[in-house]
């Protein structure tokens, strides 16, 4: 049982209630008592005597209730008893394993170094009984499962030993306490309180015995008192009244009376001394109680396909569509918004499933894409949710990749699509008729990196890369020819660019870092070039916007430094944002809306709650829950994520996110003890980690690991200087940022320096390999997922559709067309330093990965094995740059969990007996 239900507010409320009762001062020294006006400590808190209510309301065990009231009964004075009981409640940490705390209290009373019964040095029989009971409590505290039959056998053995002890001896008093302790506090509510009372009797008797008063004195005073009583009763004037033998003793034997009074006062004083000592022992034991380990969250609850996900509303508000799981495959389902009971399955893929969809402006028509086993050559399909008809819209040619470019309400029968059928490097722009599937070429791409069209499908801008990694925007001259219009330096090109045109095409909205570090949101008059700054943030680039649906001007914008923040630009949207912010749904984002803006889909989550989607009716100001992404986690003990800023060795600010296991959380950026730590490295590297729900963080924290994610230099969203700081620093300063973050966690006592793992995918996988070669003794193990091992072969094999970004890649990694560039790439390639690796390594790869080819992993595996270094290699031949199919994903996570448990010592869920049917894993 986690103390106080694991809720700090529960403990706070209990202590505040106790302080309020202390001020009133109406107490009854009687266990678990309430007379309607006053009571014992527990009875007053409950205003009743139901110990089930004690467990339910306060999340505290029944043994603790009896212990607290037992202390009150034995207290030298009631006020002191109440104050000391309150101190015990204060000492018990929120979330501590309350049942284990009971064993810890018993063990401290029996075998504590300073005040345990063992310090009385009992005889052999009592000492053996004490050792047996203490041993079973120790085993319980170590996490061992103790069967009820073991406790029963222990009690039989202890009773047999105690019964053989001489009655009224010091060992008999010790034995009575040991007998009371031979119970599991989880099943006996009196185990701890009975052990306490036995301890008090034994310790008080031992202290009294050390006084100059022995058994002979006891016998002598008993005889003398008896003689006085008999003489008084035999006197001629005795009338049957009460005989006060102590008064007679004082009158006839004053010296004996004085000695007896001193002896009795010493006993009373010793009772108070031992009571206070017991409170100190119990307080220390409760404060040391380890938090309860939360139940193991099944991997399937975290990583299996959700029952439903990705819900979207049609532009006319008539339909809702979503992805639903069936036999481990996600497909599209749809239903009329007002008749969800009429839901029907729309797609029936049986292999890889559908990963997402969008609505066209043609009523009831959905668009979605699929590739072949992760090759990222996407084919476009249309699905009619009313009829169930599914049609291919683009060809199934090998190596051809299609994508939806633009959807407009002004042209509901058409969409703009990109298609690289003519030239695999540079996709052309087409107008696609949704009803007939006819493709009309709009722009034959001469080598541009992209286009921008307005809402009327007029192509207004083109962009192309420059030799230095920058970018150039072009617009048409009066003759219709593309002419340079706006230049972006290499530093600006990665954080600046157009977002969209106003509905009339006269204003271009643009993220602009020119002349500043972080990208601002600006409006550019497309005729005059005049620029107006709409929003900027000194620490973060401006992110997404919510735009007006009539003229497309931004109503609100987001900026994310440590946390996502939404800011109002136009007061027209302020009431909606205020309403949603006040609903207590966590961090929310606009996930979709109808054409008239009356209905919104709102996606909300927090670090301890996976996504929930609501339907927000703006006119009625109502919010209705539609979908919970992972309802199985609703009652799970999820760990909070904490954000912090770590300073690199050269002064950069690294926004980072830490998750500590629930049972080890000791406050802000603190752990109860140094923990095994997993450093999670994001891919890209031109992306970023953020705050919020993370299945990876929750999974690893639940298994007992601290988890740290770091936005190292080169990560996006923090300004152009931060991105540029990563240029040429693969395998150097980008690695050093991760190393600095690990050292921060070690210095704060969060991470155990001998139990560190590094885990990442894509660029993160490269970082794993690089770290293991640069710091061979740092990590206990590493996990590389689709990470490049050789930067030269990586750049030589990038997908053809990345050709437009080649100069940018060269600027970041090194230029293989120059001798210095080739030398840099070779130096920074982990493949050439493979012999330095000492830590166990798990490498996982998708056989169809178009970005990081299978050869990148296999050449690393070969190099390691060639040097006699053990490596585990997992290949999924039907996957690409990541693992999409559920059986593959689940089998990989089981591999990771077992690997980490072996090398870091965390918890692990056993693999299912039947394995993972359908997985293509090759080890």
Features of the shown structure:
elongated; alpha+beta; four-stranded antiparallel beta sheet; 923 residues
Describe the protein's architecture and organization:
- With about 900 residues, the protein is an alpha+beta fold.
- It contains 25 helices and 35 strands.
- A hairpin with a 6-residue loop joins β9 (about 400-405) and β10 (about 415-420).
**Rg calc:** 37 Å
Biggest sheet details? 8 strands, mixed
Q: Biggest sheet, strands in spatial order?
A: 28-29-31-30-32-33-34-35
**Overall form:** elongated
- Termini separation: 41 Å
Counting copies of identical and different chains, the oligomeric state is: single chain
Secondary structure category: alpha+beta
What's the number of extended β-strand segments?
35
The residue-averaged pLDDT reads 91
Share of residues in helices: 25-40%
The proportion of strand residues reads 15-25%
Residue stretches low in confidence (pLDDT < 50, at least 5 long) are none
How many helical elements?
Answer: 25
Show the helix and strand layout.
Layout: H1 8-24, H2 41-46, H3 51-58, H4 62-74, H5 78-91, H6 98-111, H7 124-141, H8 148-163, H9 170-181, H10 191-209, H11 215-234, H12 245-252, H13 254-287, H14 299-303, E1 308-313, E2 319-326, E3 329-336, E4 344-345, E5 358-359, E6 365-370, E7 379-384, E8 390-392, E9 402-407, E10 414-419, E11 428-433, E12 439-443, E13 450-453, E14 459-465, E15 471-476, E16 482-488, H15 490-493, E17 497-501, E18 507-512, E19 520-525, E20 531-535, E21 542-547, E22 554-560, E23 564-568, H16 574-581, E24 587-593, E25 599-606, E26 609-617, E27 622-628, E28 641-647, E29 653-659, E30 675-681, H17 695-702, E31 706-710, H18 720-724, H19 733-747, E32 751-761, H20 763-774, E33 781-785, H21 791-796, H22 806-813, H23 819-827, E34 841-846, H24 854-866, E35 871-876, H25 886-904
Parallel strand pairs: 30-31, 30-32, 32-33, 33-34, 34-35
Antiparallel strand pairs: 1-2, 2-3, 3-4, 5-6, 6-7, 7-8, 9-10, 10-11, 11-12, 13-14, 14-15, 15-16, 17-18, 18-19, 19-20, 21-22, 22-23, 24-25, 25-26, 26-27, 28-29, 29-31
Helix pairs in contact: 1-5, 4-5, 4-10, 5-13, 6-7, 6-10, 6-13, 7-8, 7-9, 8-9, 9-10, 10-13, 11-12, 12-13
């Amino acid at each position: 049982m986690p103390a106080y239900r694991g809720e700090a507010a529960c403990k706070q409320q209990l202590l505040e209630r106790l302080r309020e009762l202390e001020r009133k001062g109406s107490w009854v020294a009687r266990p678990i008592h309430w007379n309607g006006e006053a009571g014992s400590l527990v009875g007053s808190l409950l205003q009743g005597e139901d110990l089930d209510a004690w467990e339910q309301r306060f999340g505290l065990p029944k043994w603790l209730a009896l212990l607290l009231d037992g202390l009150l009964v034995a207290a030298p004075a009631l006020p002191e008893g109440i104050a000391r009981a309150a101190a015990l409640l204060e000492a018990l940490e929120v979330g501590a394993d309350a049942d284990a705390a009971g064993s810890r209290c018993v063990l401290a009373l029996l075998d504590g170094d300073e005040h345990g019964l063992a310090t009385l040095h009992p005889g052999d029989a009592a000492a053996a009984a004490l050792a047996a009971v203490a041993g079973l409590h120790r085993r319980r505290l170590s996490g061992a499962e103790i069967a009820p039959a073991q406790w029963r056998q222990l009690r039989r053995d202890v009773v047999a030993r105690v019964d053989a002890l001489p009655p009224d001896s010091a060992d008999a008093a010790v034995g009575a306490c040991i007998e009371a302790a031979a119970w599991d506090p989880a099943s006996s509510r009196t185990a701890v309180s009975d052990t306490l009372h036995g301890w008090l009797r034994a310790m008080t008797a031992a202290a009294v015995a050390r006084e100059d008063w022995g058994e002979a004195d006891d016998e002598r005073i008993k005889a003398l008192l008896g003689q006085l009583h008999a003489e008084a009763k035999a006197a001629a004037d005795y009338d049957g009244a009460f005989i006060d033998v102590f008064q007679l003793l004082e009158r006839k034997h004053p010296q004996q009376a004085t000695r007896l009074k001193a002896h009795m006062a010493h006993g009373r004083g010793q009772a108070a001394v031992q009571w206070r000592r017991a409170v100190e022992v119990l307080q220390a034991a409760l404060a040391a109680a380890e938090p309860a380990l939360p139940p193991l969250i099944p991997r399937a609850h975290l990583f299996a396909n959700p029952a439903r996900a990705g819900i979207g509303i049609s532009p006319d508000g008539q339909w809702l569509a979503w992805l639903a799981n069936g036999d481990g495959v996600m497909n599209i389902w749809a239903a009329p918004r007002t008749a969800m009971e009429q839901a029907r399955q729309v797609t029936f893929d049986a292999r890889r499933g559908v990963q997402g969809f969008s609505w066209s402006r043609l009523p009831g028509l959905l668009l979605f894409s699929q590739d072949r086993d992760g090759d990222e050559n996407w084919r476009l399909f249309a699905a009619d949710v009313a009829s169930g008809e599914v049609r291919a819209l683009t060809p199934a040619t090998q190596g051809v990749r299609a994508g939806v470019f633009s959807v407009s309400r002004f042209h509901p029968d058409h969409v703009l699509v990109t298609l690289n059928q003519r030239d695999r490097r540079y996709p052309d722009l087409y107008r696609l008729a949704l009803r007939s599937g006819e493709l009309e070429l709009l722009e034959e791409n001469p080598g541009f990196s992209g286009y921008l069209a307005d809402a009327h499908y007029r192509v207004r801008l083109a962009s192309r890369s420059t030799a230095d990694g920058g970018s150039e925007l072009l617009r048409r001259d009066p003759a219709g020819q593309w002419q340079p219009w706006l230049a972006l330096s290499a530093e600006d090109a990665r954080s600046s660019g157009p977002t969209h045109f106003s509905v009339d095409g006269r204003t271009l909205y643009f993220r602009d870092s020119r002349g500043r570090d972080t990208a601002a949101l600006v409006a550019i008059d497309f005729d005059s070039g005049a620029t107006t700054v709409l929003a900027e943030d000194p620490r973060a680039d401006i992110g997404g916007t919510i735009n007006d649906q009539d003229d497309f001007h931004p109503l609100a914008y987001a900026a994310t430094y440590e946390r996502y923040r939404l800011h109002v630009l136009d007061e027209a949207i302020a009431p909606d944002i205020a309403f949603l912010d006040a609903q207590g749904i966590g961090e929310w984002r606009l996930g979709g809306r109808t054409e008239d803006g009356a209905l919104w889909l709102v996606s909300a989550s927090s670090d301890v709650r996976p996504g929930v989607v609501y339907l927000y009716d703006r006119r009625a100001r109502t919010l209705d829950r539609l979908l919970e992404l992972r309802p199985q986690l609703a009652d799970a003990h999820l760990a909070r994520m904490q954000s912090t800023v770590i300073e690199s060795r050269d002064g950069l600010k690294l926004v980072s996110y830490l998750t500590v296991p629930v049972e080890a959380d000791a406050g802000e950026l603190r752990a109860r003890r140094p923990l095994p730590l997993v450093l999670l490295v994001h891919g890209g590297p031109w992306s970023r980690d953020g705050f919020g729900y993370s299945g990876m963080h929750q999974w690893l924290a639940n298994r007992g690991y601290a988890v740290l994610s770091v936005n190292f230099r080169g990560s996006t969203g923090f300004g152009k200087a931060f991105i540029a700081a990563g240029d040429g620093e693969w395998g150097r300063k980008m690695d050093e940022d991760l190393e600095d973050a690990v050292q921060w966690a070690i210095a704060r006592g969060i991470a155990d320096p001998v139990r560190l793992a590094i885990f990442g995918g894509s660029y993160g996988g490269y970082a794993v390999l690089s770290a293991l070669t640069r710091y061979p003794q740092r990590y206990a193990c590493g996990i590389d997922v689709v990470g490049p091992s050789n930067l030269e072969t990586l750049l030589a094999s990038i997908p053809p559709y990345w050709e437009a970004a080649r100069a940018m890649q060269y600027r970041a990694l090194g230029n293989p067309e120059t001798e210095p560039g080739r030398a840099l790439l070779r130096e920074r390639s982990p493949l050439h330093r493979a012999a330095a690796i000492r830590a166990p390594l798990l490498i996982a790869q998708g056989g169809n990965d178009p970005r990081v080819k299978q050869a990148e992993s296999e050449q690393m595996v070969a190099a390691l094995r060639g040097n006699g270094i053990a490596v585990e290699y997992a290949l999924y031949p039907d996957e690409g740059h990541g693992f999409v199919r559920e059986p593959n994903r689940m089998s990989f996570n089981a591999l990771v969990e077992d690997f980490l448990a072996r090398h870091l010592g965390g918890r692990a869920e056993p693999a299912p007996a039947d394995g993972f049917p359908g997985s293509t894993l090759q080890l």
